[in-house]
Amino acid sequence: MEQHFVDALKNDDTKLIKVIYGDYRNEFIFFSKKYNIAEADSLDIYQEAFLAIRKHAISGKLQDVNSSFKTYLFGIGKHLIYNKLKEYSSKQSYDLILHKADADYEEITIDTSEKLTKEQELLRHYFKQLGKSCQQMLTLSFYRGLTNDEIATLEGYENEGVVRSQKSRCLKTLKNLIKNPLNND
């Protein structure tokens, strides 16, 4: 990571901080458009991501980061975008009811009559028994499809090796829960 950026954030170099903030702002707004985030939300997310990276600089978490400043900043922003998308999805069903009459798109229906297989039910049941950090790790990896490097950047892990071992422990725990159900319920 660019050490002069880290130093500026740590030492409250307002002149350089303003430059850094401005340099990536519009690019982040453009980046966030592919997630269908409202521009006002994109601006809030960028502000929050920038503050988070500043906190990481002050606390020394950026010392051994191998990515560029931009990659790290956008990684934090992407995580915040995912959180905003979760908010959107919880509001979506309400909004769909309100705006259904105005819709100028083809309605997509999902067949919910199909039941989950026994294996899917087991996975869902025991996944819920994992800790929040393991649920987050496995969701980012297998559901969102992020690489270990992306997860490390996003979640503030030291490096991708830490992510790999954490993911391995989480999978092992999940497998043990599924294999030994009598010891877990």
TrEMBL record:
Keywords attached to this entry: DNA-binding, Sigma factor, Transcription, Transcription regulation
Source species, domain of life: Bacteria
Coiled coil location: none
Tagged with keyword Transcription: yes
Family assignment from sequence similarity: Belongs to the sigma-70 factor family. ECF subfamily.
PANTHER family reported for this sequence: RNA POLYMERASE ECF-TYPE SIGMA FACTO (PTHR43133), RNA POLYMERASE SIGMA FACTOR HI_1459-RELATED (PTHR43133:SF8)
Protein name in the entry: Sigma-70 family RNA polymerase sigma factor
Organism: Winogradskyella damuponensis
